[in-house]
Design a protein that fits this description.
By secondary structure, the chain is α/β, with parallel strands linked by helices. It has one domain: Spore Coat Polysaccharide Biosynthesis Protein SpsA, Chain A, CATH 3.90.550. Helix content is 38%, strand content 21%. It has eight helices and seven strands; from the N terminus they run E-H-H-E-H-E-H-E-H-E-H-E-H-E-H. The protein has a seven-stranded mixed sheet, sandwiched between helices. The chain is globular, with a radius of gyration of 16 Å.
């Protein structure tokens, strides 16, 4: 039987991690013919994130070198699924949509499905400053790489594992999300779609350093355009 691996990077997310893990729709995915594994990448947490994730039924992988991209690379290496699905550990992304994303991937013979948070965002899910920053990054991505993406920074994706093979993924930090999409859509020419999701307010403390991370992501886009 084919398998879906749901990868969740987590750093000090004890407030929400159990609910996130338990929200993975195992029965629906099994009804579609897929086994399911949930891989939580504990990215050096100093709280009970790893312990609580394990108690909720996840496979926990420890990655001491902190970084959003670093955590995902470790998760990709540990996952066994033919299909990779991703989400954050803070309850912002709708785990219940994973079967819908998988059905779209299969029905349209796609390689990669990414999501648009701005299509249906709760009022308190993102500050105005972060919306403006995301808008700048989205426009920059469209201009530099000619990708019709509404949300270049979304962290919920579903894709076929073999997509990873030809990708050049250098970022270990926050630019990983934009780099993954640029590599898959622009360089590897994957068949892809972007679909709307309901994006919710996070549970737990904010990790994003808005100005620092936003500026770094912007500069990373410029560098990526010049040097792959």
């Amino acid at each position: 039987m084919s398998k879906v691996s749901v990868i969740i990077p987590a750093l000090n997310e004890e407030e929400a991690i159990e609910r996130v893990v338990r929200a993975v729709p195992h029965e629906q995915l099994k009804g579609m013919g897929y086994d399911v594994e949930v891989v939580v990448v504990d990215n050096g947490s100093e709280d009970r994130t790893g312990e609580l994730a394990r108690e909720a039924g996840a496979k926990v992988v420890f990655e001491p070198a902190r970084g959003y991209g670093r955590a995902y690379k470790t998760g990709f290496g540990s996952a066994q699924g033919d299909i990779i699905a991703t989400a954050d550990a803070d309850m912002t992304y709708p785990m219940e949509d994973i079967p819908k994303l998988l059905k779209l991937l299969l029905d349209e013979n796609l390689d990669f499905v990414t999501t648009d948070r701005f299509a249906d965002m709760d009022g308190d899910a993102m500050t105005l400053r972060n919306k403006i920053g995301n808008g700048i990054l989205n426009v920059t991505t469209r201009l530099l790489f000619r990708l019709d993406l509404r949300d270049s920074q979304s962290g919920m994706w579903l894709f076929r594992r073999e997509v990873l093979g030809p990708l050049v993924l250098k970022s270990d930090g926050m630019p990983f999300s934009e780099e993954l999409k640029i590599e898959a859509f622009h360089f590897a020419r994957c068949r892809w779609r972007e679909v709307p999701i309901n994006y919710r307010a996070r549970q737990g403390s904010v990790k994003l350093r808005a100005w620092k991370d936003g500026t770094y992501n912007f500069l990373y886009l410029l560098r990526k355009r010049v040097v792959r």
